Amino acid sequence: MMVYIDNFNACYRGMKMCHMIADSTEELLTMADQIGVNRKWIQDAGTYNEHFDICQAKKAKALRLGAQEVTLLQLGRMLIKRPGHPLYQP
Known about the structure:
alpha+beta, five-stranded mixed beta sheet, globular, DUF4031 domain-containing protein, DUF4031
């Protein structure tokens, strides 16, 4: 099981933001707790697209804690393999 963070760099309120997903909700929430991201900021909870948008400082902390960096394309391919995604094929 793993937490993944993409290399996206969207500007938001003066910060560069990226996406953090995980193989399970539990792992995602545990990492959010460990890097200091409030659970209330989870997006699309309970769906194939469940994730957090995190800033570069939180990304660096998550990577130090064992998260794996992936490209935005790789992250998109991971989401397609999740039940509920329109292109999902079991």
